[in-house]
Model the fold of this input.
Amino acid sequence: MRGRDVCPICDEVTTLTRHHLSPVAVGAGKDRGVKARYVKLCRPCHELAHRIWGPGDRYEGPEERELFVRELRARRT
Done:
């Protein structure tokens, strides 16, 4: 589900998408309702996360929300 909100990385008010902190291919999709398993991001920040840490089932970024947000903010510049 998508909603208009504030991206935690760039502070843009826009439609956000769900970024799973562990790949859907390894079970992240099974617990969609568990907010600790994903971060809602704007499309550009979501794409940046996958450019930095790998796409889809090869995503190797932080799996802890606070660490993920902190690291992606730092790499955005």
In short: The beta strands are 3-6, 13-20, 38-41. The CA atoms of residues 36 and 65 lie 7 Å apart. The chain has a mean pLDDT of 84. The two ends are 29 Å apart (CA to CA).
